[in-house]
Automatic annotation (TrEMBL):
The lineage of its organism: Bacteria, Bacillati, Bacillota, Desulfuribacillia, Desulfuribacillales. Substrate binds at residue 68. SUPFAM superfamilies: Trimeric LpxA-like enzymes. The record marks 136 as: Increases basicity of active site His. Gene3D superfamilies: 3.40.50.20, Hexapeptide repeat proteins. The active site is at residue 135. This is PglD N-terminal domain-containing protein. Residues 3-80 form the PglD N-terminal domain. InterPro entries: AcTrfase_PglD-like, Hexapep, PglD_N, Trans_hexapeptide_repeat, Trimer_LpxA-like_sf. Acetyl-CoA binds at residues 144, 165.
Length: 208
């Protein structure tokens, strides 16, 4: 069994640790976080600051980035790989994932999520609690699919986009890079890069 280092000990980090724990494959789990007052989270030690990851490679062969910011998460994943860490994919034991799906490194799949046939999910994504990704969807790197989001079949989500809690995206929709889909939105049209969209049906609110 390998040892796992988690970068980020906030709320998201707590859930990451519990997902990792559910997999029953880690001998030791520890955190790095920039809050110097944190010593333990969920019973696991906080052993240093996030930028000190290069000190712990010999003991923790695997490392996972538990940071909500999509851009920063991807940057840190790339740095960990350069350092020689193995960046795992974390999948909670209580999920439904098609054997034909592909899920990238540094991606986490939370409890209750459903990922159906021939879905492709990139690196550093968050597939959050009780979300669903239907057949033939493509989710690029660094995307956050929030709790309760539902994607119809053959949806495309570009790099770094964030689909907020409870949003729904209809079949065959394309959403570009760095798009934020507001909570509760219903997306029935395609949208290009760098916009905030929201409403029922979703419309452009502003350029990002």
């Amino acid at each position: 069994m390998a040892n796992l280092l988690i970068l980020g000990a906030g709320g998201h980090g707590k859930v990451v640790a519990e997902v990792a724990q559910s997999m029953n494959k880690w001998k030791d789990i520890a955190f790095l976080d920039d809050d110097k007052d944190l010593k333990h989270v969920l019973g696991y030690k906080v052993i240093g600051e996030i930028n000190q990851y290069d000190k712990y490679y010999k003991h923790y062969s695997h490392a996972f980035v538990a940071i909500g910011n999509n851009k920063l998460r991807l940057e840190l994943i790339n740095e960990l790989i350069k350092k020689g860490y193995t960046v795992p994919t974390l999948i909670h034991s209580f999920t439904s994932i098609s054997a034909t799906s592909q899920i990238g490194l540094g991606t986490i799949v939370m409890p209750g999520a459903v990922i159906n046939a021939d879905v492709k999910i990139g690196n550093g994504c968050i597939i959050n609690t009780s979300s669903s990704v239907d057949h033939d969807c493509i989710i690029e790197d660094g995307v956050h699919i929030s709790p309760g989001v539902h994607l119809g079949g053959s949806v495309y989500i570009g790099n770094g986009s964030w689909v907020c809690i409870g949003a729904n995206v209809a079949n065959n929709i394309e959403i570009g890079e760095n798009v934020k889909v507001a909570a509760g939105a219903v997306v029935i049209n395609n949208f290009k890069d760098n916009v905030l969209i929201g409403g029922v049906p979703a419309k452009i609110i502003k350029t990002l």
